[in-house]
Amino acid sequence: MTTGLSVVSATTLTPSDIEIATRAADHFTRLYYTTYDSDTRVVDLPQFYRPTSTLTWNGEPVTGVDGVKNLVENMPPTKHEMHSFDCHPIPGSQPPSLLVVVSGNVHPRVFSQSFMLLPDSTAPTTKPGEVAKYYIGADTLRFVG
């Protein structure tokens, strides 16, 4: 039988957890969009995903590393300008999964993108206070203007 205390401790995030998650999301978004806009994106961008990852790009679903690679191979060069992001740590694991919502411009369009970032169990173990390593479990991009 589970006590109320153990349920609360498994689902409660500390201010430190939230601060570390926000740093992880900031690091992730900067690296992701820099990679997306690079000349090597066809090779490098799929590394953010796993075979089970899903991406919905303006209503069109693709799955896995190969699906992402096929999608970006056919896109013209991009230049993303991120205006804001929000990070929502999802309690239940340590480090927590992250829901990251981004808004910005990719010339000349306005976009909104949501990521479900999952802790990367294959990455080296992080020390307390370090930013965890994540991969994209799910990704949805929509042009909104």
From TrEMBL:
It comes from the Eukaryota. Residues 24-143 form the NTF2 domain. InterPro entries: NTF2, NTF2-like_dom_sf, NTF2_dom, Nuclear_transport_factor_2_euk. This is NTF2-related export protein. PANTHER family: NUCLEAR TRANSPORT FACTOR 2. PROSITE patterns: NTF2_DOMAIN. GO terms for cellular component: cytoplasm; nucleus. It is found in: Cytoplasm; Nucleus. It comes from Ephemerocybe angulata. Keywords: Cytoplasm, Nucleus, Protein transport, Transport.
